[in-house]
């Protein structure tokens, strides 16, 4: 099948008519969801995944006998996209809210409860007692200047970073004490490098509308709560205002297992260990080559990270070549399963985000998973705890001193030290029942300033190529809520 006219159907059985056959490259959540939507509409689909596991960043691993998420472990409830998908796949009963304890932030001066009314850590009310505790009187006073500034401050430039917007409107303390820890925890990047329109879509438009950044945050939070409340399952713990995420009993990885089972039952051909190294646009159809094998189809869905997607498509669409985004950061996650009964009192709620300038701590975040998810605490029983520490603030994977690049043993030692400090409870090697390190290299998209324009341009070029869809976090924005909503919209548009 190499070269020449694209053959009908997928390479493995070749039975489908060309117009109805689709090839999906990448078996992360975007690729699997695209395949699901296409298959449901009657298209014959083949999915090619480079690794030996499905789900991409929504992965799983077994630590201490527990099946745990190795990547994404929750979803934003600012829209109903993920909850709707979970319900559609029969997982509605498993949707849960995190324990309402909330998270903490570790600042150079000590730990504080993280205010629960922000977007990316930006407060809706600088005088809220929790916000004031983090910022001090002078910080709250400076942040409230936002209300008196013209709405053009932070919105007049076509593109701007998270830092530039926050610093101009609310000052340095909001940036350093609230925004940098949250942005570091979620995006593993310096807020000075991130495009605010990608990581907080609609925020600047809301600022223009409401006249202040605090007002914009309040309006987004209100909209998020309105859209998330119908998704709250009966019996789920109502989340404290601010913990705008949900999860699934059994972990987010169950979404992937159910999707894969559904795809198999619909006759979708699922191929792992198939790293696509060439994509051609031949005679009006598409051709992908993986492990020396050629796959042809009338429709191609590219569901990869940004650098890989542009790298593979620029041969067929040379206009894309100047639009390749930089690779995302290296993030290393250390999971510890420990026997430490003192942790039953959840000393730092659901976990701690670490402000970058905090000395003596290498982790950027710690999730106390058994404090966050009641279903998991039910599985471990009292005294046993699951802690997940993440390393890597986007310094570059080979950067000297990048904690994410340490070897497994060094990361384990760092995790014991950091967990003890952050949770204020000594945790030693003898307390550890099991541990694991998972590395995510380049999996988090790096939405550098100007990325929104890049996305618009990529989408325009790809829309002009017949039978091509490009989906994934690098275009939709990081996070399952964005990826699920955008992928469904892209595929529905072509169906
Ligand atoms: C550590 C971590 C924690 C996260 N936590 C959360 C969270 O709690 N909540 C949340 O909402 N979001 C979270 N995210 C983000 C979220 O997981 C992602 O936005 C989303 O899963 C991206 O999905 P995707 O399908 O676009 O990309 P990916 O999941 O990256 O999938 C791309 C797939 O393509 C495959 N691939 C790559 N190259 C090739 C090739 N040449 N040929 C074939 N296949 C290829 C890859 O192996 C991968 O399976 C987290 C991300 C990471 C890395």
From TrEMBL:
The keyword Flavoprotein applies. Pfam families: Amino_oxidase. Its EC number is 1.3.3.15. It catalyses: coproporphyrinogen III + 3 O2 = coproporphyrin III + 3 H2O2. Gene3D superfamilies: FAD/NAD(P)-binding domain, protoporphyrinogen ix oxidase, domain 3, Protoporphyrinogen oxidase, mitochondrial, domain 2. Its main location: cytoplasm. Residues 29-448 form the Amine oxidase domain. It is found in: Cytoplasm. Its cofactor is FAD. It comes from the Bacteria. Pathway: Porphyrin-containing compound metabolism; protoheme biosynthesis. Belongs to the protoporphyrinogen/coproporphyrinogen oxidase family. Coproporphyrinogen III oxidase subfamily. Involved in coproporphyrin-dependent heme b biosynthesis. Catalyzes the oxidation of coproporphyrinogen III to coproporphyrin III. This is Coproporphyrinogen III oxidase. It comes from Arthrobacter methylotrophus.
